[in-house]
Amino acid sequence: xxxxxxxGLVLEGGGMRGVFTSGVLDAFMKYNLYFPYVVGVSAxxxxxxxxxxxxxxxxxxxxIDYLSRYDxxxxxxxxxxxxxxxxxxxxxRFPNKLLPYDFDTYFKYSSTFECVATNCITGGAEYxxxxxxxQRALDIVRASSSLPYVSKIVDIDGVPMLDGGIVDSIPxxxxxxxxxxxxxxxxxxxxxxxxxxxxxxxxxxxxxxxxRLRVVLSHRHETYNxxxxxxxxxxxxxxxxxxxPERPLEVGRMTRDIAKLERLYEEGFAIGETFCKKYM
Length: 280
Fold this sequence. Notes:
This protein is of the alpha/beta class. The chain is built from eleven helices and eight strands.
């Protein structure tokens, strides 16, 4: 596959595995590589925000440097805020005070960016964007990153939303639908990986007001594996370029080991830099 001016960029989620993506995107910014369309889900949406605002290393500082300082992952946040991540810190104090987000630059380029969230009522994916409202932009990326069971549902325009990875973990079909027939896909799993977890029917006692959400949660592992197979097929057909970790992963969704996170970030940066030298 050859890149052209219409090539899209797709960013998978994966919790703390997303530090790989932040490394890749920092390399892209170093080489001034920007795409006409970017779609991100969960951690991919968070990293995409700093990429769209042209703020190198911002995601790295948030995900690695500030993790040890502020310890924003843990059960105490689930008890006090209803989310295993400290959302007040991540979506208020960080962007507005501690790690200022460049909203002006973001809105200059936000027409190129979409975040994926799951509509709790329909059980379908929503592809969200915001062009001027700072709080709504933050709410959208928060919704995209709100993991089921360990995060509160987020209201967007009166619609209850959760993590986009429930139904569209790797939104390459959305990029194609938007007119980008070729895409670069940044993944946070090794090539050939499949989720061997067993899908189970979600109890009626959980999300009792959202039966369609329960249905998609009951099939999320199967859905993810189908998307991984689609990615492999598109890559084999030369329709996408995949950027993924090459070393065996030692970082999980909730990893707090700074040394492991640092190594994964540096791997992402090195692979991203090699990509830029090859394709630019």
